[in-house]
Protein: Cdc6-related protein, AAA superfamily ATPase
Organism: Candidatus Nanohalococcus occultus
Amino acid sequence: MNSFRNSVIEDARVLTADYLPNEMVARDSERQEIARNLRPMTEDQPPIDMLIYGPPGTGKTSMARYVVEELKSKMFANSAYVNCFSHKSKFEIFYEMLDKKLTVPRDGTSTEKVIQLFREKVRDSPTVIIVDEADQVVDDEVMFELSKLNNTGLIMIANDSNVFGHFDSRVRSRLSGVRKIHFRSYSVDQIVEILKRRREHGLRTDSVSDKQLKAIAKAADGDARVGLNSLRTAAQESEKQGNENITDKIIEQSVEVSKSRTRISSLERLNKHQKTVYEILEENGRMKMGNIYQSYCEQIDDNKSKRTIRRYMNKMEAYEVIDSEGAKKAKRYALAD
DNA sequence: AGTCCACTGGAACTTGAGGAAT
DNA sequence: ATTCCTCAAGTTCCAGTGGACT
């Protein structure tokens, strides 16, 4: 790829959060549990469906992909991945999981047809379906259809464990056998370990010290993605400056850059109404619902109903953009820290 | 300890866009 | 061209709950 000798970076791909490492740090029991639930597939039996949940940057998606790759190395199996943040509807979700795309974007193919095509695809080869950001799915039929499919295993990924709350009882009972697996935030030491392994494969080894990795890990606050982005940003910046080693100053800057970048990217996901709520909380600090909604209506012409705003806020809370404390009348909302 | 009511979240209903059927 | 159907997004309605206040 690059014929020049790089001063710091040896393999940039290794430093991205999407890179799938060949072993996962500190998630052994979770790995085993996922593998155990999929294992029946190797004996032609239906696997146990799963919900993996936990805060951002705790390795949920990576681990799911990791275990599925592991399974594929042991048997003939396929996998399908769909992220429901950008594909929310029944049509889009099934369409995304097909590998032969139809004429883009929509050629009048009905949702039923797309599901039928997916069924055909899955019929002859056992398939693990990874449904990322499953809490974005509003239509409970999707989960029903997915859980009904033969010859497939289902891994759902979400931020909180209560994603089925709004589904109807038929779907809930269908999903009642789903095994829930909790991914907790990483400790500082665990993030250091993750960063060390990436350094080993992606960087010239002595370009960044253990102590510096620890500083990055501390700032990442349990979110491995933030840690990895900080390290990559620091490495790229040093490279650009032609330095042999990453300096503390660059580390400090990169941590800031990457933290604000994550914040911005989660803010970019908010719609206009959610942004208004965000700004109100930013300005006023901790507030109760009534006051938030009142200010919101004052600031915006085409205001949505209170119920809708509350739904939006539930989402913001699941994505850790805002926080709440107390219950009922004493409940107060604020920006997440 | 009793009443009040702000807040929550489930459920049914409405709206509007866009494809399918005739 | 029109009517019908499906789907997503939002609204209206409402019962339950437990803090706040007396």
Residues 88-91, 110-111, 138-139, 304-308, 311, 326-331 of chain A lie near DNA strand C (CB under 10 Å from a C1'). Residues 102-106 of chain A have pLDDT under 50 and may be disordered. Residues 248-268 of chain A form the longest helix (21 residues). DSSP finds 13 helices and seven strands in chain A.
